[in-house]
Design a protein that fits this description.
Low-confidence stretches: 6-16
Structural class: alpha+beta
Number of helices: 3
Strand order of the largest sheet: 2-1-3-4-5-8
Helix content: 25-40%
Length: about 180
C-alpha cells in the first residue's frame, strides 16, 4: 500500500494529540465526575461497638459512605457523608489546596471498614486541611472540635476505581506545584 503524505500527516497529528498532557482544568473535571460516579461504599458496621461486620448478621447495620470531589484552580473540596441504617450521621467537609499535598503520599488503602479508600497527606504533615463537620438536622455539634488535619480521604466502590483516582489525584497535585515531604 502506497502511503500518501496526507495520510502520514493525519497519523502523526492523531498520535501527537493523544500524547498531550491533561491540563489542570480537565483533570479537576475528571476527578469530580469520577468521584460522583464511583465515590461510595456500603459496609457493615456493628451496632454495639461500631466495628466492621458482615451485612445480614445480627447487630450489623448498613453503613453507606459517599465522597465527592470539587476543584477550582488549585483549591479543592471533598465531602464525606455517612448514613447508618439509612439515617444521616453527618458530613465532613475537607477544604485544602492541592499544592499543600504530597503527591508521593497519595495511595489506595484497604482499611477496615473502608475496603477501598484513597488517602493523601500534606507535605511535612502540616495541618493545612480544614475540616468542618455538619451534623444531621436537629443535632447539635461542638464546632470547637472542627480543627485542621494533615490528610484528606475519599472512599470508592472498588479497588480499580480507587487506583485510577490515585493516578489523576497525583497529577492534579503536581500540576499545582505540590512537592513531596523531604523526610
Amino acid at each position: 500500500m502506497k502511503r500518501t503524505p496526507l495520510l502520514i500527516l493525519a497519523i502523526v497529528a492523531v498520535t501527537a494529540d493523544a500524547q498531550q498532557p491533561v491540563n489542570l482544568k480537565e483533570t479537576l473535571e475528571w476527578l469530580h465526575n469520577f468521584a460522583a460516579d464511583n465515590g461510595r461504599q456500603y459496609v457493615g458496621q456493628r451496632n454495639t461497638d461500631n466495628g466492621s461486620c458482615e451485612l445480614g448478621t445480627p447487630d450489623c447495620g448498613q453503613r453507606k459512605d459517599v465522597t465527592t470531589f470539587d476543584g477550582q484552580g488549585c483549591s479543592a473540596t471533598v465531602k464525606w457523608s455517612v448514613t447508618l441504617n439509612y439515617k444521616d450521621v453527618g458530613t465532613h467537609t475537607y477544604r485544602f489546596s492541592l499544592k499543600d499535598l504530597d503527591p508521593k503520599s497519595v495511595v489506595w488503602v484497604k482499611d477496615m471498614p473502608f475496603e477501598n479508600a484513597v488517602i493523601a497527606d500534606t507535605a511535612n504533615s502540616v495541618k493545612n486541611v480544614n475540616v468542618v463537620f455538619t451534623p444531621p438536622e436537629g443535632v447539635t455539634w461542638d464546632k470547637s472540635l472542627d480543627e485542621p488535619q494533615t490528610f484528606v480521604a475519599l472512599v470508592f466502590d472498588n479497588g480499580d476505581h480507587a487506583k485510577r483516582f490515585v493516578k489523576a489525584f497525583k497529577h492534579a497535585i503536581q500540576l499545582c506545584g505540590g512537592k513531596p515531604s523531604p523526610f
